[in-house]
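User: Teach me something about this protein's shape.
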Amino acid sequence: MKCLICLLIIVSSVFCDDGELMASRQFNIKPDPSVKSTEIVWNDIKCTFAYQAMGGTNEDWEIGILQPAKQTEHQVTCMVNRAGGRTTYLNFQSFSFKIEGATYAMAQPFDSKNEPLPHTEFVELPKKNMVKQSKKFENSIGRVILWAKMEQEEELGKMEQKEDL
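Assistant: First, the predicted structure itself:
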């Protein structure tokens, strides 16, 4: 329950004021049966959103990398959503959101009504640093958030543990 409350606080706006937006850009999604992708890079962090969308019309979307203002266990956030928090009318046949340069912690996709997708509609693949649709995906996403830990922080923690021994 505590995690759900934290999650709702974190995603209460498109890019929260609680952190610093390190990089963002808009891109356009056009209905197309082929798989497309877009990415954003900040320092050693790369977030890649791959999708296949049908129906609706062209829509502007945003992809961004956020770093929290306060030190938390999740050091970086990748986010993709319809620009301006507007409702999407696209039907997504597939999606995946991947991070490189950091270690995957957790993700939460949301539907076009900004409701969290049930866990039956997406699969988290921590070893691949990604989240993607499941076989039970019902074709609706309006936002996807992926939290990760910076690899440098993890390496520093391992070094400090060794020094303690």
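Now, about its shape. Strands lie at 19-29, 32-42, 45-54, 59-68, 76-82, 91-100, 102-110, 122-125, 130-133, 143-150. The first helix runs from residue 2 to 10. If you'd like, I can walk through any region in more detail.
User: That's plenty for now, thanks!
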